[in-house]
């Protein structure tokens, strides 16, 4: 039977209960982190824990105790026998009234884990007709308000895509529903900066560090959405995808994996193998 960590205890999922008045359910008032589980261990724990704190603080929630979270993570992974998969930590505003105002209660904390099917070697991404608001109060925070992403991903899947890509309100490349986007132009790997409204992914940061350490030209810079049309290579990065080559953007075929993408795939795999908490 699947087990989850709920508010301080490991419980069977069949008996786990969250209040129907929980603010995470009512108004999407919550934050979360997803971590790669490899060999039964969560990868890049320190970075994900710091980003969870950043998101919680940015939303005005009390971040959970770090030691308690790690205990919960290890317990959930072990209880469910997850060797290769994903771990999710969710923190919500807790039970509240039927509106936007929070109550003075502790946050709800849920830690869950599951197996993860391997991704295909390369993927198609689809641009969507909706935008990210780079001036939003929650820009750059990993919140549970994912209705935009659900709608966009369904749009992409209906068109044969594995991911959906947003522009921001200025027409600049922003991000995908659960991934950061890189374009390779004239031998340089480019990805949008925080000012474009994207969530700064942990894998994204590690890839930029690998570029710097291995003399691969890279930069955080704003580029128009149509850079996806002219780029020599495109790849996406995320906790569960690592460095994932893109073979098509909408109806345009892209060489995949390109030279720089392939090198980063190898460098990232090496990093995971030698340093589990970089």
Summarize this, please?
This protein is α+β, with helices and mostly antiparallel strands. 28% of the residues lie in helices and 30% in strands.
Explain this structure to me?
There is one protein chain. Helices cover 28% and strands 30% of the residues. The protein is built from seven helices and 15 strands. Strands 7, 8, 9, 10, 11, 12, 13, 14 and 15 form a nine-stranded mixed sheet that branches. The chain has a six-stranded antiparallel sheet with strand order 2-1-6-5-3-4.
Q: What string, H for helix and E for strand, traces the elements in order?
A: EEHEEHHEEEHEEEEHEHEEEH
Distance between the termini: 33 Å
- Poorly predicted regions: none
Which structural class fits the helix and strand makeup?
alpha+beta
The general outline is globular
- Overall average residue pLDDT: 97
Q: Provide the helix percentage.
A: 25-40%
Number of helices: 7
**What's the total count of β strands?**
15
Radius of gyration computed on alpha carbons = 19 Å
Question: What profile does the largest beta sheet have?
Answer: 9 strands, mixed
Task: Name the features.
six-stranded antiparallel β-sheet; 15 strands; globular; 30% strand; single chain; alpha+beta; 278 residues; 7 helices; nine-stranded mixed β-sheet
């Amino acid at each position: 039977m699947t087990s989850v960590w709920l508010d301080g205890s490991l419980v069977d999922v069949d008996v786990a209960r969250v209040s129907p008045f929980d603010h995470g359910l009512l108004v999407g008032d919550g934050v979360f982190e997803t971590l790669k589980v490899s060999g039964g261990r969560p990868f890049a724990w320190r970075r994900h824990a710091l980003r969870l704190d950043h998101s919680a603080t940015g939303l005005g929630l009390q971040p959970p105790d770090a030691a308690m979270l790690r205990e919960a993570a290890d317990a959930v992974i072990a209880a469910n026998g997850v060797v290769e998969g994903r771990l999710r930590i969710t923190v919500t505003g807790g039970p509240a009234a039927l509106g936007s105002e929070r109550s003075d209660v502790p946050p709800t904390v849920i830690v869950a884990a599951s197996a993860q099917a391997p991704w295909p070697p390369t993927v198609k991404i689809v641009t969507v007709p909706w935008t990210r608001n780079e001036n939003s109060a929650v820009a750059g925070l990993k919140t549970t308000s994912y209705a935009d992403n659900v709608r966009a991903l369904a749009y992409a899947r209906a068109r044969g895509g594995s991911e959906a890509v947003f522009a921001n309100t200025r027409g600049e490349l922003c991000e995908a529903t659960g991934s950061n986007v890189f374009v390779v132009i004239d031998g340089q790997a480019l990805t949008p900066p925080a000012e474009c409204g994207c969530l700064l992914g942990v894998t994204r940061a590690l890839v930029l560090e690998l570029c710097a350490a291995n003399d691969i030209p890279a930069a955080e810079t704003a580029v128009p959405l149509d850079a996806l049309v002219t780029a020599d290579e495109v790849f996406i990065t995320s906790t569960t995808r690592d460095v994932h080559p893109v073979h098509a953007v909408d109806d345009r075929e892209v060489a995949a994996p390109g030279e720089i993408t392939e090198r980063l795939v190898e460098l990232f795999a090496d990093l995971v193998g030698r340093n589990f908490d970089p």
